[in-house]
Amino acid sequence: MDDALLIARLGAIVGAANVKTDETARREASQSWYPRETKQKQSSGNSGGGVLPLRLHRAVVFPADAGEVAAVVRWANETRTPLVPVGGSSNTVGGTQPEKNSGSVAVSLSRLQNLTWDEESLLCRAGAGWNLHSLEETLNRHGYTLGQVPQSLYLATVGGSVAANAVGLLSGKYGRQADRTAALEVVLATGVILQTQAAPGGSAGPDIARLIHGSEGTLGIVTEATLHMRPLPEARAWGVFTFPDFVTGLDALRLIHRTDARPAAVRLFDPAGAEEHLGQGGLPTQSALLLFAFEGDELSQTGPYQVAHAVCQKVGGSEQSPDIGEAWWEERFETGWMAPNGRPGGIADVFAVSAPWSRLGGVYAAMGTALAPLVTQRHAHIGHAYASGAALNIIFEAQAEPGTPEAALELYGRITHAAVDACQDAGGLIAHHYGIGSAYRDAMAREWGEAGLATLRQIKAALDPNNILNPGKLFG
Ligand SMILES: Cc1cc2nc3c(=O)[nH]c(=O)nc-3n(C[C@H](O)[C@H](O)[C@H](O)COP(=O)(O)OP(=O)(O)OC[C@H]3O[C@@H](n4cnc5c(N)ncnc54)[C@H](O)[C@@H]3O)c2cc1C
Asked: What is the DSSP-derived secondary structure letter of residue 331?
């Protein structure tokens, strides 16, 4: 189908003004925060030429509602055109990038901005295109919060957050996106609009909405989510401790999560990660740093706060000023860790892995050993903790020689392989919250095992027989 016919067919569904084929729109929809794409953009410049051109979607379509999304999907089935749903493009795994020579069309959900809420049931229905920060701010004005505060709050959308099953910094209290979602409206690959029910509980068969969470645009296009709201907490109280090393800090976190005291937010930095927060005003350097926060009323007097405090003291932690926690919270949306992408040959990224407590120290050590010869800097932190284990983020910077985008990409590939292999060898899982996209799809067989991956692929084939929804991502 030539461009004119494509525009005419899609324009008949969404209106001609809502189909874009200019390079700016296609670039915007084709690029995310995946370090590979950033390097490709640098090498190709603004002209679209260069040695490593960024692949572009053929067009971007902007439907207004679920009905238009369904019509676009039916058209894609007829013409066997791959569709890639696009939210805030904040994924770091190549989740929205076009596959090679696929002729894909990007479906932006940005016009889906409906919003209603039910204060009695603490539920809000939001269109998939809502930016998470705008939605949170709107609800805050009425005394509510979604409790979903990822570090990408200002970038991500409701639909993208569902599709990625994202997790916010207050996960200890609110859980992750699937826990915050009461119901979904999803356009399936056949063009059918599925609406799940928002009643609490339910045992009438498997939870289809859970299947959509984390499906990265491969099983359906989310057009609306019914989300749980909570009244805004009155206060947040921070506890801050240093520990002689990371492993002792891990022990403190593990023991806290063995009790019923579950902090809303935790951050345990290894000594390299803690460096910027310590060493001032007589604080010990070369220490691990744990920040934890509880939310509610009169917090520092309450049992859970005191329990966590006592655990930290028992394992040898030294109490520090809660201001360190407050200061970190103020800076929580800082995204400086991607900065080396701007340097010739510089590359940076984060691995967000997870493991049971019994294997976590081993995963941290194994990944550190694997990365040491390849990177110029690395530091780690725990950002989400559970009774059974925790999520470990390892952030690195590396410098390729010569400082070309090609060399940076080659080095990036080696670093990713080394880190993923080390994590899996040590018994960790590779994707606590950044997902798979195209970055980690080769690791899926080991992540799920043969039977697990085969089952996922059967579900995909049943729901999307023509493989039109984000083909190539997640399932490989
Ligand atoms: C600086 C930074 C910090 C981050 N911090 C966090 C964090 O704290 N926690 C966390 O979990 N993640 C984090 N991320 C990753 C990212 O923000 C999340 O994955 C986010 O939920 C993606 O939302 P999005 O709207 O940007 O989706 P996109 O990046 O546009 O898309 C993500 C995936 O979902 C699909 N998709 C998008 N919209 C829809 C839809 N409506 N229906 C179906 N599929 C869809 C896309 O095809 C793609 O596969 C961070 C990223 C950055 C850059």
From this structure: T
Q: What is the DSSP letter of 167?
A: B
C-alpha 280 to ligand 1 mean position (Å)? 36
Render the burial of 445-469: b for 16+ CB within 10 Å, e for the rest.
Answer: ebbbeeeebeebeeebeebbebebb
Joined tokens for residue 59:
């067009």
Strands in 265-269's sheet, in edge-to-edge order, are 318-319, 235-243, 288-296, 265-269, 377-385, 389-399, 346-356
The residue ranking higher by pLDDT, 338 or 203, is 203
Residues 238-251 have pLDDT tens digits of 999 999 999 999 99
pLDDT exceeds 50 at position 49: no
Average pLDDT of every residue of the chain: 92
Torsion of CA 421, 427, 432, 437, to 10 degrees: 30
**89 CB near ligand 1 (under 6 Å):** yes
Q: In the numeric block, which tokens belong to residue 463?
A: 């729901």
* Sole residue written with tokens 């390729």: 400
CB of 92 closer than 6 angstroms to any ligand 1 atom? yes
The helix (run of H) or strand (run of E) holding residue 221 is strand 220-228
Tell me the C-alpha distance between 230 and 140, whole Å.
10
Helix axes 246-258, 303-314, angle to 10 degrees: 140
Helix axes 357-371, 405-425, angle to 10 degrees: 150
For residue range 353-364, list pLDDT tens digits in order: 999 999 999 999
pLDDT tier at 48, thresholds 50, 70, 90: very low
Q: Check: pTM over 0.90? Answer yes or no.
A: yes
* Among 28, 32, 90, 165, residue to substitute to test ligand 1 (most atoms within 8 Å of Cβ): 90
Q: Which atom of ligand 1 is nearest to the CA of 166?
A: 11
Relative to the CA of 169, which ligand 1 atom is closest? 8
Nearest partner of 431 among 176, 65, 103, 99, judged by Cα? 176
Q: Which of 394, 388, 396 is nearest to 355 (CA)?
A: 388
What pLDDT digit, counting tens, does each position of 362-400 carry?
999 999 999 999 999 999 999 999 999 999 999 999 999
Q: What are phi and psi of 231, to 5 degrees?
A: -60, 145
Handedness of CA 397, 403, 406, 407 (dihedral sign): negative
Asked if the model's pLDDT at residue 45 lies above 60, the reply is: no
- Is the minimum distance from the CB of 434 to ligand 1 under 6 angstroms? yes
* Pairwise CA distance, residues 391 & 431, whole Å: 9
Structural domains of the chain, ranges and CATH numbers in brackets: 3-108 (3.30.43.10), 115-231 (3.30.465.10), 235-330 (3.30.70.3450), 336-434 (3.30.300.330)
